[in-house]
């Protein structure tokens, strides 16, 4: 890292700085900036698979809605917004493949490319929080519609509403945090700028466990209702 603050550099000094490896190579390794080893084939394949699977399932849901129900509820609108944010979420995958940055060591990319990788990470994280917020809210509202009889506030009513309230609060807070964690804002993808960024590792870990917990509620709740059915 240069001893001169980035903001005080001349244009030529900035260009020279940004053209250097984003990290010093460890002992025994050499930086390869022109043609680094990568797994862009794997990264692009996974991104395409996620795109196809998600949109096939979403279109099936739209088909069922227009053919069989046709009555618009808030969960349909939330699902549509979630599909839009998920589509934006997939963009970083395609851009990283274009950059040739999948599974590339930090010392094998210059700071220009590293900045783009961090920007894609910021977009992906932001869109992930929004997608989880809208998609899981839609699912909980749908479970409430399907499994709650509507004439009494039973356990299903409270589980769905409490889970809905908690997930809205958590994912909204996560979204706001990632917009405010760096000062100035664009230091999130330009770490050499003067300023500060809070440590995101805590909320990253919390998001993993929280997401698993919500997924378990979403999965288990319908099973408990199915097993209560008195079928011949």
From TrEMBL:
Keywords: Membrane, Transmembrane, Transmembrane helix
Main location, first listed in the record: membrane
Family, as annotated: Belongs to the SAT4 family.
Protein known as: Rhodopsin domain-containing protein
Boundaries of every Rhodopsin domain copy: 61-231
Any Pfam family matching the protein: Fung_rhodopsin
Localization of this protein: Membrane
Keyword Transmembrane set for record: yes
Membrane-spanning ranges: 42-66, 78-97, 117-135, 156-178, 208-227
One cellular-component annotation, GO: membrane
Record bears the keyword Transmembrane: yes
Species assigned in the record: Bionectria ochroleuca
């Amino acid at each position: 890292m240069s001893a001169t603050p980035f903001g005080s550099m001349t244009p030529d000094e900035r260009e020279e700085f940004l053209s250097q490896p984003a990290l010093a190579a460890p002992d025994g390794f050499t930086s390869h900036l022109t043609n680094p080893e990568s797994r862009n084939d794997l990264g692009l394949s996974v991104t395409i698979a996620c795109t196809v699977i998600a949109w096939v399932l979403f279109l099936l849901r739209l088909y069922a809605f227009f053919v069989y129900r046709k009555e618009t509820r808030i969960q349909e609108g939330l699902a549509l917004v979630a599909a839009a944010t998920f589509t934006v979420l997939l963009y970083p995958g395609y851009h990283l493949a274009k950059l040739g940055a999948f599974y590339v060591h930090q010392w094998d990319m210059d700071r220009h490319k590293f900045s783009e990788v961090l920007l894609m990470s910021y977009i992906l994280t932001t869109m992930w929080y929004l997608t989880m917020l809208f998609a899981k809210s839609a699912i909980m509202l749908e479970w409430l519609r399907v499994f709650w009889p509507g004439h009494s506030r039973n356990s299903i009513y409270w589980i769905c509403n409490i889970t809905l309230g908690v997930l809205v609060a958590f994912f909204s807070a996560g979204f706001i945090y990632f917009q405010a964690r760096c000062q100035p804002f664009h230091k999130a993808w330009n770490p050499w700028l003067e300023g500060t960024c809070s440590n995101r590792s805590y909320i990253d870990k919390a998001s993993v466990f929280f997401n698993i917990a919500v997924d378990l509620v979403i999965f288990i709740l319908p099973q408990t209702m199915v097993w209560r059915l008195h079928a011949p």
